[in-house]
Structures are given as C-alpha cells and as structure tokens.
C-alpha cells in the first residue's frame, strides 16, 4: 500500500471568505442606513413654492440670472482690456455682456443693452455653444421685455446644461411675465430642488406674493437674504425687496427699519433710498421725500420712480413740476424703446392715468393679447374704466384678481369700476380692502378711495 494511501487525511480549514464578505457587506449597509438617518435629520425639508394646500411638490432661491457684481464698471474695463489682447476669447465676450447687464441694474442706462447684445453675439460667433453667452441672451431678452425670446434662450441653454439652476430662473421669469403661472410654479420647484439659494428663494417669494400669501412671501425673501453675504449687492437688492413687501402690506415701521438696515451697509444704495422716501411720504414728510426722490432719480432714472415723483408734486400742488416729471417719463421710455425694450405695458398704465387715454386702451389691449398676465389685465381694466367702458373693465379687473393677489392698487381699480356700475356693496368691499392692505398705497389715489367710500355712505 502506498505511503500516500496510509497517511491520515489532512484536517480541512473552513473557508471563511464568503462569511467575511457577507459581514463586510452587512457593515456597509448599516453605515449607509445610519448616514441616511443622519442626513434626513440634518437636511432641511424641501421648500414648496406655494403653501402645501396650493402645491404639493417642492422648491428653492435666485432673482435675476446675472450674479450681481458690485464692481461692474471695473469688470467691464478689465474685460475690454482682456479682449484687446485676445480678441478671440469667446468666454470673455460673454462675461463682458453679463457685466454690462449688471451695470444697467445699477445705472438704468438702456444704451448698454445694444452693447451687451454685441458682446453676446461676438461670443456665439466664436463658439455657438458658449453657455454664458446663451444665458446672457436670455437675461437680455427678459430685460428688454421679450419674454417669449427669453424662454427660447432658456430652452437652448438647458439643452446644453440641464443642471444649471440659473437657466431655470430665466424660464421662470419668462413664464411669469407671459402669464403662465402654473408652468412657472413647476419650473421654480425644479429650480429650488436643484439649488436653494437667493435666486430661487426670491422667486418663491414673488410667486407667493402673486398668489396672495404675503407672510409666506416675506418668509421666503428673508430666507433669500440669509443665503447672501451681508452688504453685497445681491443682499442689498433682496433686502429692499423685503422692505417693499412690508411697505405694500402697510407696515411702515418694519419697512423703514429694513431700508435703513440696507443703508447702514451702503448709504448711497439708490433702491433703499427710494424705499425710505416712500416711507417718508406716507408719514407726511412729503418735501423730504421729494428731495430724496429727486436725488435718486438723478442717478437712477427709472420711469416708475419718475411717475411717483410726478404724483407727489401733484399732491403738493405743484402742477408744473408734475408735468415736467410726466414729460420726462416719455423721454425715458423713448430711450428704452430705442435700446430695444418693449415698454408698451408701462406706457399703457401711464397713459391711462396721466396721458392719452384712448391710446392707453389700444396699448393695453395689444399687450394683453400676447402677455395675459394679471398686471396686463389690471392695466387694461384701468384703461377701459378711464374710457367709460365699465362693464368690460370689470371683466378684466376680475381676471387681474384671479390669483388672489393682495395688491391695493388692483382692489382700488376694482372698487372704482364697481362704483361706476352702481354696485355699491362690491365697490365698498374692494375700496375698503385696498385701504386695509395698504392705506398708503398711493398719495394720489388713496384719498380718492376714501372720498369714494364717503360718497357711497361709509
């Protein structure tokens, strides 16, 4: 018998490798579960655009597709120098266009729009897929009130990069300004889910405001402020928007506090100075408010500010100064139009109140045809009322109020229309609501609302 056959069989050691692998996999699973539990606790719940009762999906912040730059002029000069040295740099052309758009926000100089257009065109000539240039074209379209064009550019940009939240912001703004409110909510939900920051939260605030949820709008705007570095231009801009929400809800004390907080950071910030002037006017300090507004308009000649100043001069009894402001509005809007802006809606409301009322109706009808927003509906209602077409005016006033927006001016217009139609109960309801929302919504028209209530027996 061979030695091999007679030797005792060796003892077999059990194969522990499968057991080790199984234990390791189980350990990994436990770790993953623990991590998920920790993240679920640490990660804040997603932010719905509207209150859960109105929207069961989710969203988060960034107003304006351009990241504001407090040194826009320096950036423009640096980029121009860079392009002189490298004229084929597509990215620098795109950045130059964006810097010019930021400068418009700071100066209200519409002549920069064509220059920004040229910069974006040059970028895309060198690189048709230059994403910042495509985004810039979308922002520029919005600035010029070409909202359909803005939506098209947003779609082009998203085809190149579906994960850039800024692009969704352009789409949201375009959809809101086209009256596509449900689509805007859905797009914004995607934006805030993707990137909750100042841009998305501030947009959440605006959509909540449009839908009548003013406390929710304030909360979202405060969250937007908390995401920005204090004292930067984005922080200042958003701070002023929060102040405006308080002013429009009639809370002068809180509005003043917020405007002053912005001015502590930058004493010359024009938008905060303008907000503080409105508070002064509402508090009866009209001459101080007029002086402040005049100084602001010298640096930031925005048509809505000039209109407000004209109304303040009217209230103060200075008809000549008021006329000068209204003449200036026409000059500003002509300059805006020559820079490619569509200002028909703004001119329609201005003409309905202070100019050619027949032209106002024509302009408002045209705008509502391609931009059926609640603002366009209210503007058309006002123009129709001014032309004595009360029944049709009421139809559009109801369209303006369809979202439940708590806008004192909308309700003032609705109340005056109802009074003209002889519906005293509805007139009292709307006029009282206008003055309840904000008793200082207009130095010119709030007294008119009070006088009409008195005439109606209240």
Q: What's the name of the CATH homologous superfamily of the largest domain?
A: Tetratricopeptide repeat domain
Percent in strands: under 5%
Instruction: Based on the coordinates given, report the CATH architecture of the largest domain.
Output: Alpha Horseshoe
Q: From the helix content, strand content and strand pairing, which structural class follows?
A: mainly alpha
Q: How many strands, which pairing sense, and closed or not: the largest β-sheet?
A: none
**What is the domain tally?**
4
- What is the helix/strand order? HHEHHHHHHHHHHHHHHHHHHHHHH
Spell out the blueprint of helices and strands.
Layout: H1 3-6, H2 17-42, E1 61-62, H3 72-85, H4 90-107, H5 112-126, H6 131-143, H7 147-160, H8 165-177, H9 181-194, H10 198-210, H11 214-226, H12 233-248, H13 252-265, H14 270-282, H15 286-299, H16 303-316, H17 319-338, H18 344-354, H19 357-370, H20 374-386, H21 390-400, H22 408-420, H23 424-437, H24 446-455
Helix pairs in contact: 3-4, 4-5, 4-6, 5-6, 6-7, 6-8, 7-8, 8-9, 8-10, 9-10, 10-11, 11-12, 12-13, 12-14, 13-14, 14-15, 15-16, 16-17, 18-19, 18-20, 19-20, 20-21, 20-22, 21-22, 22-23, 23-24
């Amino acid at each position: 018998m061979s030695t091999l056959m007679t030797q005792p069989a060796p003892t077999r050691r059990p194969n522990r490798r499968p057991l080790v692998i199984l234990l390791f996999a189980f350990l990994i699973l436990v770790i993953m579960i623990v991590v998920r539990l920790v993240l679920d606790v640490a990660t804040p719940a997603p932010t719905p655009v509207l209150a859960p009762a109105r929207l069961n999906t989710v969203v988060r912040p960034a107003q304006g597709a351009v990241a504001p730059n407090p040194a826009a002029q320096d950036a423009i000069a640096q980029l121009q120098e860079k392009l002189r040295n490298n004229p084929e740099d597509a990215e620098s052309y795109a950045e130059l266009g964006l810097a010019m758009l930021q400068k418009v926000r700071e100066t209200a100089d519409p002549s920069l729009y064509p220059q920004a257009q040229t910069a974006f065109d040059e970028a895309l000539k060198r690189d048709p897929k230059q994403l910042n240039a495509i985004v810039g074209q979308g922002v520029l379209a919005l600035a010029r009130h070409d909202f359909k064009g803005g939506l098209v550019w947003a779609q082009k940009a998203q085809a190149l990069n579906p994960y850039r939240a800024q692009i969704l912001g352009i789409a949201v703004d375009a959809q809101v300004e086209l009256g596509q409110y449900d689509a805007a909510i859905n797009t914004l939900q995607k934006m805030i889910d993707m990137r909750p920051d100042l841009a998305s939260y501030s947009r959440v605030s605006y959509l909540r405001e449009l839908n009548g949820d003013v406390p929710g709008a304030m909360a979202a705007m405060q969250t937007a402020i908390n995401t920005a570095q204090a004292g930067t231009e984005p922080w200042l801009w958003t701070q002023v928007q929060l102040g405006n929400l308080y002013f429009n809800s009639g809370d002068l004390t809180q509005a003043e506090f917020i405007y002053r907080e912005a001015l502590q950071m930058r004493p010359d910030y024009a938008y905060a100075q303008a907000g503080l002037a409105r508070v002064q006017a509402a508090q009866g300090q009209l001459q101080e408010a007029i002086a402040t507004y005049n100084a602001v308009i010298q640096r930031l000649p925005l048509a809505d500010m000039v209109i407000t100043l004209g109304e303040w001069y009217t209230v103060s009894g200075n008809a000549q100064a008021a006329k000068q402001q209204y003449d200036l509005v026409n000059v500003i809007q002509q300059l805006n139009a020559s820079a490619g802006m569509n200002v028909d809606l703004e001119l329609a409301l201005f003409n309905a109140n202070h100019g050619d009322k027949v032209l106002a109706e024509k302009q408002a009808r045209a705008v509502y045809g391609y931009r059926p927003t609640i603002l366009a509906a209210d503007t058309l209602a006002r123009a129709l009322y001014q032309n004595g077409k009360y029944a049709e005016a009421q139809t559009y006033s109801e369209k303006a109020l369809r979202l439940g927006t708590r806008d004192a001016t909308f309700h003032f217009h609705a109340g005056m229309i109802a009074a003209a139609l002889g519906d005293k109960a509805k007139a009292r309801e709307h006029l009282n609501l206008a003055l309840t929302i904000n008793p200082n919504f207009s130095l010119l028209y709030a007294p008119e609302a009070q006088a009409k209530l008195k005439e109606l027996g209240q």
